[in-house]
Structure formats: C-alpha cells, structure tokens
Amino acid sequence: MDGIMICMVVDELKKTLLGFNINKIYQPQNDEIIMNINKKKLLISANPTAARINLTNKTKDNPQNAPMFCMTLRKHIQNARIINISQPNFERIINFEIENVNEFGDSSFYKLIVEIMGKHSNIILTDGKGTIINAIKHVTHSVSSVRQILMHLKYELPPCNNKLNPLEISSEEFYDLIKNLEPKQSLYKLLNGISPTIAQEICYLAGNDKQKFCNVFIELQQKIINNKYDCQIIFDENDKPIILSAIDLKKYDGYKKIKFLSASEAVEAFYAQKSKINLIHQKTSDLRKIISNNISRCQKKIKLQMKALEQTKTQDEQKLFGELIMANIYQIKPASEIFVAQNYYDNTQTEIKLDKNLTAIENAQAYFKKYNRLKRIQIAVSEQLKSSQASLNYLETVLQNLNLCENENDIDEIRNELYQQKILHKKNQSKQTKKTSYLHFVSSDGFDIYIGKNNTQNDFLTLKFAHSNDLWLHTKNIPGSHVIIKTEKKEITQKTLYEAANLCAFHSKACNSSNVAVDYTQKKFVKKPPGAKPGMVIYNNYKTVYVTPDKNLIEKLKKDD
Fold first, then answer.
1. Rounded Cα distance, 242 and 250, in Å
2. How far from 190 is each of 2, 158, 458, CA to CA, in Å?
3. DSSP label at 26?
4. What span, in angstroms and rounded, lies between the C-alpha atoms of 188 and 194?
5. pLDDT over 70 (residue 436)
6. How far apart are CA 144 and CA 149, in angstroms?
7. Burial class (CB within 10 angstroms; exposed 0-12, middle 13-18, buried 19+) of 312
8. Which of 15, 53, 542, 545 is the most buried (most CB within 10 A)?
C-alpha cells in the first residue's frame, strides 16, 4: 500500500465513517484490530508482511480475553465519534481524530494513528496533546535508537528525510527537482508515498524525455487530487497477485488485471489471495521438501540403473564369442590367447580373446557364463528401472498436485496419500479429513468437465465416477491431472474437446508451455495395472490433440459448485 493507495482508502473512509461513532472494538490477532462503525467493519493490520487498512465483510473471532491494547482502545475511544480522517504529508499514515464525550458533556480528544510501513507498521493511540497512551507494538531504544513508541512519550512522525509531498509541488518545482537526477530514483527517494512501482510506471510512459516525465507526473498528481482512481490487482503468469495499485499501470498491459471501484474491496481481495497462497505454501513446504528429496534420490537411482543397463549391451557379443569358439573348437590350439573366427552371421572376421590357461571348451563356457550373467542383470535392472521411472512419474505428479491445492483439506488428502505410500512416516500423517471436491468446469456447449486435484481424486474420477463412454484426457508423458468429460450419451463437440484439452494442459506440469500434447480416449480403454501407484493408469485406442493453455478461457469455464 503506497501513498496513492492510502490516499484512495482515506477518501473512501471519509465518505463512509466520518461523523459516526465507534460501536465496538476487538483484537482477533496480536497485530490486528477491528472496529464496528456505521454498520461497517474497519480492519486495521500492522502485520509485517500484510499491513493494511480497509473495510471488510469478513467476521473474525472475538477473543474472550481482550489484549491490553484492545482494552485501552475500548476505555478511551469506544462509543466515541470520528471527527476527521487524514493522511499527513502523503505519508503511508492515516490519522483518525476522535472525540469522546463523557456523561457530564465534557469532551476528550484522541488520535488513532495507523502506520502502514512494512515491518515497521504500527497502530498507536495518543491523547489530544500527542502523548502516546498505548500502541499495538512497543518500540524500545534497543529496537530503534531513532524513534521510540512507548507509553507517555510524545508521538513523533517517522523520519521522512526531508521528502516532499507530491501533491503540493508545481510543474516547475518538479522539473527543477529531477533535471539533474535520474528520474526514477528521484521520485521515490525525494517524494513521499511514491513507490518504485509508480516510479517505474512514470518512466515507462515518459521514456527519456524529462519534460514528458514532468507532464506525466503532473497528470498523475491531478488524478489523485481529483480522486480519479483506477484501482486494480495485477497477476503474474501463475495467477498470483503481484501488485495492488490505485492507478492503471500501462507497463503491465498484457498481464491479467482485475479492476475495483472500491479501495477496500481491492485491498481485501489482494491480501485474501496473498494470505491463501502464503498459507498453502507454508502448509505444503515440508511436503515439497520431502517429495523433492525423493525425486532427487529417484533420479540418481535411475542414472545408476541406466549405466548398469548400458554395460549389459555386450551380452550378445559374449554369446557370439562362445558360439564361434564351439563352432571352431578343433581349430583352436592349446594356450592360444587370440583366435580369429569367421562370423557366420555377417561373414566378417571376428577376433576373440582367449584365456591361455583354459581349454577351448572352458573358454566358450566362460563366455556363455558371462552372457547369462549379463542377461540376468539386464532383466533385473530393466524391472528396477521400470519401477524407478514409475516412482519418479508418481512423485512428479504429486508435486504437480500440490500446485492445485486450494485449502488445508486438499493438502491433508495428499499427506494421507503419501502416508499410505510409505513416503511419509507415521508422525507426519495428517488427521482424517473430509473428502474435498474435484474441480468442475462446464464447456461452452454445456458438457460437464471434471478434474482431479490429487491422485486419490484422479483414481476416483477415472475408475469409479466416469462411465465407459465418457471421454478421458491426460497430457502425453507429462505429470498432470485426469480429466473427464461426461458425455451423457451425446456426441462430444470439437469445441468441448478443445476446451477440455486446454484444461488438461493447464492442470499439468506443462501449464506454462505451448503446443502441449494431450491424449484422449474413452474411459473403457483406460486400465489400472495391478499394484500401480495412485493415479497411475495405462490406456490405448487414443488420439492426440495439441493445445496452448489459455487462462482467460479457463476462467470462463469455471463452475462454482
């Protein structure tokens, strides 16, 4: 949340909360408070990685034992009236000026100060004279020698290093400011509230022309002064929210953007998705590490097995040498070390090394013995290699499935699956959870399409849910989800097939690739070999279609169950 986003939030809060009383205050987290005002909930968070302020519709638990800071707020400002909301000097700070009137009609004035500054974020209550009553985070001299936040101290603004308010400088002043400096750095080092992202946007629009740079900045300044915002969230190629902005960022044209009329709705959506992604990442980090370690071991094993298999390629040669010795046994002189024989397969001369201490028959038997040993090794290693490759495919599929997790139940299903496969120890086993639903989409022509989020769901969809004439899809030789098109005894359209193949490619390891091969066949041609790992099947009578995953198409097909 940069200065522009804070400015938009302040404008919204003024229209919604100004003049109303604070009805209720509670503190659901150590660094977060919620206040009920004008039938609205105002969330204020000083979380180091998700500091924010916004109106919210979400309900959070109200702890039975209120923390000390919450008790302080209730004592001084509960039932008090908000008389002003401001953003000092375009800083990432919001001041709530509050008036409380006692039963005798006497007024007391307070200021609730919200500092949105990353790891230095804080929520501070002062009296009318600016003396700190309490703060959600106390900052001692050992933490900061520059600025302490402690009870009874005078509140001071964070040091701004003589930065200027970008809304209060003229075009001429701005040009003088940047004419001898590199524009991008001068913006966020000399002006309050201008983030590197906004500085990059201005540079992108202006190029190297400093006069144009000045014009672009003044145009932005006027938009902020006149409250003309274009609030949006920008997503990366993996659909992860990367930027929250109060203005349209032309530099990110081509990226997925979702626009909002309300600043609070944008802030709520941005941090909700970030929180969900962070939670999933945190909850799956141990599984990713275990699976990645198993994949690494599996790859090393496969490398050794392939090397051993390569060494067995001489077995046919050993057999030939034995046969040629037996065919020419009477021509071989005792104590010979080399014998040149006519190869009756290709009519060439073949040189054969002999052990002079062995008879011709014994030399032949030695070659046959080596041939039989290499053949046994080849058969054993081939089976081991097949098993190792199946394990590697399975592990890569599970790793891909972790990317599809949407909640803790999804993670627990995979955790329990890994326990069943003895990849996790018993102490890592998750408690039994309710089954989660697979992904459901509807094609443009009205066909239901189902996708498994893990191997347990893949097996269920393919082996139990799908009927024999339903269509089954999977990326060719690439880890991914099983996809089922329910035919309902109707002929599947080419458009539906293309859309399902697109979904199949998107929910695979090839989600960021182009021209992905997707195999499809009727479910009756898909079988699970005895003893195969979860999600592993074989199939025949298939055809292949090539698609490039299209996220916009996938969003349109999503079915909310």
1. 15
2. 14, 15, 56
3. E
4. 5
5. no
6. 9
7. buried
8. 53
Strands 538-539 and 526-527: antiparallel
Strand order across the beta sheet in which 439-442 lies: 439-442, 448-451, 483-485, 471-475, 516-522, 543-547
Q: Which of 338, 330, 340, 320 is CA-nearest to residue 361?
A: 330
pTM of the full predicted structure?
0.69
Residue 236 confidence (pLDDT): 86
Distance CA 420, CA 417 (A): 5
Whether 312 and 377 have beta carbons less than 8 Å apart is answered as: yes
Per-residue model confidence (pLDDT) at position 344: 84
92, 115 in Cβ contact below 8 A? yes
**CB of 233 closer than 8 Å to CB of 257:** yes
Q: Which token pair is 124?
A: 């501070």
pLDDT-derived band of residue 561, with 50, 70 and 90 as boundaries? low
- Laid out side by side, the sheet with 32-37 consists of 22-29, 32-37, 40-45, 52-56
What stretch of H or E contains 79? none
Round to whole Å and give the CA distance between 46 and 120.
8
Residue 494 has pLDDT above 70, yes or no: yes
Residue with token string 């071991």: 297
d(CA 255, CA 444): 24
Q: What b/e string do you get for 500-538 counting C-beta neighbours within 10 Å, with b at 16 or more?
A: bbbbbbbbbbbbeeeebbbbbbbbeebeeeeeebbbbbe
Rounded Cα–Cα distance for residues 163 and 189 (Å)? 7
Do 474 and 459 contact (CB within 8 A), yes or no? no
* AA identity, residue 365: Q
* Main-chain phi, psi angles of 344, to 5 degrees: -75, -5
Distance CA 171, CA 221 (A): 10
Contact 33, 70 (CB under 8 A): yes
Residue-wise pLDDT for 237-284, tens only, equals: 777 899 999 999 999 998 889 999 999 999 999 998 888 888 888 889
User: Counting beta carbons within 10 angstroms of the beta carbon of residue 180, is it exposed (0 to 12), middle (13 to 18) or buried (19 or more)?
Assistant: exposed
C-alpha 437/C-alpha 453 separation (Å) is 8
Contact residues for 254 (Cβ-Cβ < 8 A; gap 6+):
none
Contact yes or no for 169/187 (Cβ under 8 A) = no
CA distance 350 to 341: 5
Whether the Cβ atoms of residue 263 and residue 54 lie closer than 8 Å to each other:
yes
C-alpha to C-alpha distance for 290 and 217, rounded to whole angstroms? 50
pLDDT digits (tens, 9 = 90+) for 27-49: 998 999 999 999 999 999 999 98
What percentage of the chain reaches a pLDDT higher than 70?
Answer: 97
> Which of 56, 19, 21 has its CA nearest to residue 37?
21
Could you tell me how far CA 467 lies from the centroid of its own chain? 34
Q: What is the dihedral of CA 26, 31, 37, 39, to 10 degrees?
A: -80
